[in-house]
Amino acid sequence: MVLKVKDLGKSFGKTSIFKQVSFDVDKGEIVCIKGKSGEGKTTLLRCINDLEKADAGSIEINGLIMCKEENGHIKYAAKDEMLSIRQEIGLVFQSYNLFPHMTVKENLMEAPLFLKKMPKNQIEQSAMELLNQLELDGKENSYPYQLSGGQKQRVAIARACMLNPSILCFDEPTSALDESTRMQISKIIRQLSAQGIAIIIVTHDNAFVDEIAQRVITLSKGSISEKLI
Amino acid sequence: MMEMKVLNMLVPMTLSGLVTTLGVFIITLVVSVPLSIVVAKLRMSKNLFVSNITAAYIYVMRGTPLLLQLMFIFFGYHYVPVIGYAFGRYQAIFVAFILNYTAYFAEIFRGGINSIDVGQYEASKVLGLSKSHTFMKIVLPQVMKTVMPSVGNEVITLVKDTSLVYILGVTEILKAAKAVSNTYATFSPYIYIGLVYLLITAVLTKVLNKVENKFNYYR
Ligand SMILES: Nc1ncnc2c1ncn2[C@@H]1O[C@H](COP(=O)(O)OP(=O)(O)O)[C@@H](O)[C@H]1O
Ligand SMILES: [Mg+2]
Question: Would you give the DSSP letter of residue A228?
Answer without folding.
Answer: E
